[in-house]
Amino acid sequence: MHFKNCSFIYFITILLLSPLLSINAQTISKPIEGKVIDAVTRMPIQGVTIHATAKCCCTEGMQACNCVSDVNGCFSLQFQCKTENAVMAMSGMPGEKMPFNPDSLYLTALNYETMVIALRPGAAGQPVEIALMPTDNLLHQVIVTASRFHQDRADIPAAIGIVDSLTIENTKATQLDQLVNKVAGVFMVDLGNEQHEMSIRQPMTTQSLFLYLEDGMPIRTSGLYNHNALLEMNMAAMDRIEILKGPASAQYGPEAVGGAVNILTTNPPAAWSGKALVQADNNGYKRTDLRIGNSFGKLGLVLSGYYANRHDGPIDYSDFHKTALTLKANYRFSPKLHLENKATYINYYADMSGSIDSIQFARKDFTSHYRFTNRKVTALRWVSTLNQSWNDHADSKLALMYRNNKTGQNPSYRIKDSKTDPSLATGEINLNSFESFVGLLQHRQQFNWLQGQLIAGLSADISPSSYHANFIKITKNTAGDYAAYTSPDSLLAKYTTGINNYAAFLQWQMNLLPNLKITLAGRYDRFDYNFSNALPSTAVSGAPSADVHFGHWTPKVGLSYHLQRVGFYANYAQGFVPPQVTQLFNNVKVPFLKPQVFDNYEVGGWFSLLKNKLYADWSLYNMEGKGEIISVRNEDGSFENKNAGKTRHTGFEYGFHYQPVSSWDFQLSGTFAEHKFLEETQNGIDLSENQMSTAPHMLTNASFTYKPGFLKGFRIGAEWQQMGSYYMDDANTAKYDGFQVVNLRAGYDWHKWGVWVNALNLLDKYYADIASKSAYGYSYNLGNPLTLVVGLQYTF
Predict the structure, then answer these.
(1) What pLDDT sits at residue 93?
(2) How would you list the strands of the sheet with 210-214, edge to edge?
(3) Cβ(600)–Cβ(572) below 8 Å
(4) Could you give the CA distance from residue 21 to residue 87 in angstroms, rounded to a whole number?
(5) In whole angstroms, what is the distance from residue 16 CA to residue 36 CA?
(6) 674: exposed, middle or buried (Cβ count in 10 Å: 0-12, 13-18, 19+)
(7) Is 146 left (phi over 0), alpha (psi -120 to 50) or beta?
(8) From CA 137, how far away is CA 609, in angstroms rounded?
(9) Which residues pair with 76 in a beta bridge?
(10) pLDDT band (50, 70, 90) for residue 102
(11) Where are the beta strands (DSSP E) in 193-237?
């Protein structure tokens, strides 16, 4: 009877407690779910480890649970432990799992600051959004430029410079050179209004020795290089910049000799977000940016763009305006199959003020003699990329691209004075346009044997192009200004060129020993130029119609050795560049230029010390060129391209990054280089062993940033940019001393608002970004004077 009474009492107890247990289970059995995003870009972060520890409801003590965020940044944590307590045992359910709640989450990810967040009671079942702040974890950066697939920096036997999203956000650059010049061995020459030249393991030059990419796809077709090509980029859509230094022709083909600059665009954010900003400076520059995006289930959209203009700048006749828009739409069919679509439109106009001579430079006279010269660019690019992950060991991608580009000019550098009448001159108006139809198929296969990895691909670029130029007569006023011109007169040039580039490439990587990898790569390129001249062949109208073909196999071999905090690499790589269409056929009666071939030998390394507070990398290279195409200025002021005999480019690049505490950040990068002729003759003069012109021996960039803990959201930083001396001509008869510039940047972010003030050329130094000399005279492109930029940003 007593036993029956006890059983009855326990039974009643279970009945009474069951609703409470059920309610509690419903409260805490739901998982912790949410998304992890980048605090700067608002994009989802894949591969974040989320860890939690909590006390179990029974006697088993502390229990842990882990998960990893997926490609959309999503995660789900379900906390459970086994219990055999009396109440549950009497319910006839021993050994069941009973959930429990943690009080905090611990998040870790490569290239992001570790974060611990406290959870409020009842957080289970309510989605959370966690924003991780990017960090400068340079030792384990993930790179995409080396192979078009994600790859650990330590596995790449090459020198790579990175400008990450946090640096882009804090710099508030108005031009790309303010960002890429932070990278060791890189100097992008500012020619005004986003126009530029480049120097990466080469002199400052307009030659086709650099490849410009957007998300791994060339923004222009090979054979129609333009040294101003980066003005066709949309800075508002940038997320990151990767610069692969040295020849990369084995991966990307022609023009990737000095280096490849890859601008990675932002992806759609995980949730509705964006930003709008306005900025202006004291030298007539104004700009408005907008970025807005959202994800709708499997579809993500982001629109980025800006409008910039300048009026009444420090240099006479230098107005410009630019509109840039990028729409990106990503659709994920499944966790393993997704489609990326992107369209970019650029509309650009700039007055072409020309350079100034030595007398103007000495007098600080910035008056332009030109009143109608200009450059106009419209560019449309569309790319659709299908990415398929077959399994953990195999990935494929198919990219289709369309380009439509028109570059029109009334160029100042084509104007020539009349030899008989000082009141007259001649010039031209020209238009260079092309369309492109591009296909790229690439596959990566990983093997267990020696942890091998094979990357293979095929590409085709079909780009019909046209060029025409009209002769114009120009009148000069009494002040010597080129004041006006008559309507276009006779045709100077009119031709079309079909440019077809077909390529196949392979890359094999495997472990020779633990931590020692070898990379073997090669690419074969076939170029067909189908040139059709509508005019009789002359030295002005161009070469006669012809079909010209170039073919080249480009190899690369590299070794990389990586321990926990130190690594080394060595490589041999070749670069290959066929003559450009305008170099080969324009203003020549007979094509005579040959392809350029460069052989590069390089060693380098990196290390991390003081618990990753100090990071350094370095590279030592020797690159020799055969048939390098150089531009020679004639006595009448015109330029002529020719193959140099042999050239040598050697240098040492270095970079240091030191962050003793989270509030202080120090960076130093630079290069010591020499660019010389081994064999060269110009106008009958032997220039062998001479230094090449506009080739500085030293470049240095140093900066520090302070973010005080007592004033969250505030930052202030200083930057020092130095260029060493160089010869202004190949004959080495005149030298330019170089320059030093100090920049100061400060900003404050408060909730959704941000404000900043950048003082560029703080000490108001008077200098030239580039200076040259020829038989025609001296030429200086002025650097910007003191520039105060003020900006306001709203983030939503």
Answers:
(1) 40
(2) 159-163, 238-245, 259-265, 210-214, 217-218
(3) yes
(4) 10
(5) 42
(6) middle
(7) alpha
(8) 12
(9) 33
(10) low
(11) 195-200, 210-214, 217-218
Q: Exposure pattern of 562-575 as b/e (b: 16+ CB <10 Å)?
A: beeeebbbbbebbb
pLDDT in tens, 567-618: 999 999 999 999 999 888 887 877 788 889 999 999 999 998 888 889 999 9
Closest CA to 34 of 100, 150, 132: 132
Q: Which of the residue ranges 354-358, 522-526, 786-790 would you say has the lowest mean pLDDT?
A: 354-358
Report H helices in 141-239: 165-171, 177-180
Distance of CA 430 to the CA centre of its chain: 30
Place of tokens 């020779």: 512
Give the tokens for residue 630.
């150089």
What's residue 140's pLDDT? Answer: 60
Residue 433 CB-density burial (10 A; 0-12 exposed, 13-18 middle, 19+ buried): middle
Write out 243-300 in H/E/C secondary structure. Answer: EEECCCHHHHCCCCCCEEEEEEECCCCCCCEEEEEEEEECCCEEEEEEEEEEEECCEE
Cβ–Cβ under 8 Å, residues 57 and 81:
yes
pLDDT, tens digit (0-9, with 9 covering 90-100), for 157-189: 999 999 998 899 999 999 999 999 999 999 999
How does DSSP classify residue 548? E
Cα distances from 480 to residues 91, 155, 261, 359, in angstroms, run: 103, 59, 41, 14
- Extract the tokens encoding 113: 């600051």
In this structure, what token pair is assigned to residue 40? 């700067």
Burial of 144 (0-12, 13-18, 19+ CB in 10 A): middle
Residues 6+ apart with CB under 8 A from 663: 706, 707, 708, 709
